[in-house]
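Input chain follows. Return structure tokens only.
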Amino acid sequence: MRKPVVAGNWKMYKTVADARHLVSEMVPGLQPIKGVEKVLCPPFTALLAVSALLEGTDIGIGAQNMYWESSGAFTGEVSPLMVAELCQYVILGHSERRVHFGETDSTVNKKVLTALGMGLKPIVCVGETLDENETGMTKEVVSRQIISGLADISLQVDDSKTVDLIIAYEPVWAIGTGRAATSAGANGVIADVIRPALGTLFGERIAQIVRVLYGGSVKADNAADFFSQPDIDGALVGGASLKVSEFIQITQSAAE
């Protein structure tokens, strides 16, 4: 059994004061939920404050991005050393980074290699656009993102039968649109495209161990449907992760 993961991607929302308030309201409801890996991913500016509030809990913290160099003259970037001081996880290759900031499979690959080398757990996002979906290119696009984005990576299975890599299948057309993929459709892409691509890189055993999340308009009222699918191991949650009761209900659904 793969332990489910529910990660909240706050995107560019919440000041430090807002983040403190949200976490203080969220933690009491999240703490009692067991059997789920719980992760909050606030903006960089709130990482220190949120990290302090999560100390002593079983809730992890992640960054939403990082650069692949440890230090240097890279104005405006955040190094993996800085991220690793505060976080256990980092989201990489999100479609918004690819669309708005020019990220490619190659740059994602550099970040994943560096993150793993720093002891971080990367949550690597893959997914096709609406045009790619409607023209039957889902398999081609998602396979390429996996094969190229995870090239030259070595994964080891630890004592808990997990690896430090998490994949998030996020069809671009479902992110922030209110238009979620069907649970069966998302499960099909994971089972028939993502796991075979992982198998090509790492072998069948590891392909079946890697947790693969669904992301894209996940809400409290549809989360259980996604989690009922055999190849969906949790969710990368966007807008609903900013709503206390919604995120707690989603996490509870993953536990059940």
